[in-house]
């Protein structure tokens, strides 16, 4: 990969931005910080309650970027330093949220507060201080597809207009209030509407990102190793945990739901384009036709996903089983998967998105971005990481008699 040229199209140095990144210690934040440090001149004020996933960037303080990243241990629910940090920055990126399905119906209040109430001051401070905001929403705001309401054998289900999700025209279809799964999507939708309204009425410069199942190293945690034993992370970490422990992978309600998975590193390229289109074009192309232009991202909502990587959850389980066997050298189990009801796995109130195919027209037109990595390739590099990082720790944990530390 070419290293980034830190000059603009006229050969002048690019003005380094100061970025206030809230939730920088999470999965996406850690990859975005890594990319910004390695390939741009920008500075990051990294805000989070945890920093384990970015420790490698903060230490040692002799690292080449040591003066460009600063960690602030802040809970944005109650910390008066937030406004000052947003004021110090040119751009705020808000990633902070509770975003794990196991939490949506077991901790619906925390979920709604985290995704709506706690984001309100961030939007307000950006708007009042004339600062640009990139806010992370979710593909879950689309909810269920229109096609899912058609009879199972309806030929219309095959028509893209009944399932492809478009930022500017698809409706947002959630289940009933008892299906608390949708509390997350609903809170995210309302904060999107508020940001959009701040743009329309008060001139807030914003970009909204709707990630479609970004996966890769450092996503969530492995229960009992670097997270709670009873915790339920997102599907990549659930299945990785099962594979590492040589247990069957659990298919919720038969694993019929469909998802499109994108490699985190592809998705981070898209975010970098939103931050500063110019820099990335210089790094990757010889094409000098495009101009530096955060304006190409301003006022837009972007789907960021890989429509070519669609599988059912059952197919994902089968592929992960095969890939893990290849990278670990261990044979697959005779019975690699087991079905489980959503009630047993997540509790009452669970519901699911049936299918998530992102329409790519807007991001293509505005940023010229496309995902690159196939599902097999991204699983191979991610499961190699999981095996290298966790296999020994799991062996030790399994070898210990129960109740010992
Ligand atoms: N990973 C995906 O594919 C995906 C998909 C859709 C949406 N998103 C959205 O992207 C964002 C980041 O997702 P992620 O996968 O990196 O999740 P993550 O849980 O790994 O990261 C979120 C980070 O925010 C921090 N945080 C939460 N509340 C905070 C608070 N009150 N104060 C300070 N820090 C706080 C957490 O400690 C965590 O480090 C979220 O808004 C999520 O809804 C992610
Ligand atoms: O990543 C995203 O784009 C969004 O989707 C996720 O929602 P979901 O895809 O349902 O979450 P996963 O936990 O990754 O589950 C995917 C599918 O696998 C199933 N699953 C999960 C875990 C498991 O062990 N077995 C299993 O069959 C779930 O029921 C679901 O159908 C989360 O809501 C968010 O992080 C995010 O907004």
Q: How many helix segments? A: 13
Straight-line N-to-C gap: 45 Å
Largest sheet: 7 strands, parallel
Order of helices and strands: EHEHEHEHHHEEHEEHEEEHEEHEHEHH
Using only CA atoms, what is the Rg? 21 Å
What are the distinct ligands in this entry? nicotinamide-adenine-dinucleotide, uridine-5'-diphosphate-glucuronic acid
Structural class: alpha/beta
What proportion strand? 5-15%
Strand order, main sheet: write it out. Answer: 3-2-1-4-5-7-12
CATH superfamily of the domain at 18-219 and 263-307 and 356-371: NAD(P)-binding Rossmann-like Domain
Might you state the CATH topology name of the domain at 18-219 and 263-307 and 356-371?
Answer: Rossmann fold
Uncertain regions: pLDDT < 50 for 5+ in a row? 1-5, 280-291
Identify the overall geometry.
globular
What value does the average pLDDT take? 92
CATH-level-2 architecture of the domain at 18-219 and 263-307 and 356-371 = 3-Layer(aba) Sandwich
As a percent range, the share of helical residues equals 25-40%
CATH class categorisation of the domain at 18-219 and 263-307 and 356-371: Alpha Beta
- Count every beta strand, where a strand is a DSSP E run of 2 or more residues: 15
């Amino acid at each position: 990969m070419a290293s980034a040229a830190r000059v603009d199209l006229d050969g002048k140095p690019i003005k380094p931005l100061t970025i206030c990144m809230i939730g920088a210690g999470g999965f996406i934040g850690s990859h975005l910080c890594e990319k910004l440090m390695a390939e741009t001149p920008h500075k990051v004020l990294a805000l989070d309650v945890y920093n384990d996933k970015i420790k490698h960037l903060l230490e040692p303080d002799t690292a080449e970027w040591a003066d460009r990243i600063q960690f602030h241990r802040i809970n944005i629910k109650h910390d008066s330093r937030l406004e000052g940090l947003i004021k110090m920055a040119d751009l705020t990126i808000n990633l902070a949220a509770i975003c794990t399905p196991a939490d949506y119906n077991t901790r619906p209040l925390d979920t709604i507060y985290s995704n709506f109430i706690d984001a309100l001051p961030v939007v307000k401070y950006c708007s009042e201080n004339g600062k640009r905001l990139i806010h992370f929403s979710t593909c879950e705001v689309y909810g269920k597809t229109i096609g899912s309401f058609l009879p199972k054998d309806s030929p219309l289900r095959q028509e893209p207009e009944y399932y492809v999700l478009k930022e500017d025209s698809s409706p947002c279809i959630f289940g009933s209030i008892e299906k608390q799964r949708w509390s997350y999507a609903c809170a995210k939708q309302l904060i999107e509407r508020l940001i959009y309204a701040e743009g329309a009425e008060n001139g807030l410069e914003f970009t909204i990102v709707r990630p479609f199942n970004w996966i890769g190293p450092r996503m969530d945690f492995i229960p009992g190793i670097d997270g709670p034993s009873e915790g339920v992370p997102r599907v990549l970490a659930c299945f990785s945990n099962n594979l590492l422990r040589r247990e069957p992978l659990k298919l919720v309600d038969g694993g019929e739901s469909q998802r499109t998975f994108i490699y985190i590193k592809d998705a981070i390229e898209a975010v970098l384009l939103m931050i500063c289109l110019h820099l990335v074009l210089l790094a990757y192309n010889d094409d000098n036709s495009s101009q530096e232009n955060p304006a190409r991202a301003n006022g837009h909502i972007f789907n960021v996903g890989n429509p070519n990587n669609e599988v059912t959850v059952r197919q994902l389980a089968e592929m992960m089983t095969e890939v893990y066997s290849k990278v670990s050298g261990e044979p697959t189990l005779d019975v690699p998967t087991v079905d489980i009801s959503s009630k047993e796995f997540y509790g009452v109130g669970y519901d699911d998105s049936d299918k998530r195919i992102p329409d790519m027209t807007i991001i293509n037109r505005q940023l010229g971005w496309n995902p690159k990595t196939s599902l097999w390739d991204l699983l191979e590099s991610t499961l190699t990481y999981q095996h290298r990082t966790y296999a020994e720790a799991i062996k030790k944990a399994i070898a210990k008699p129960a109740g010992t530390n």
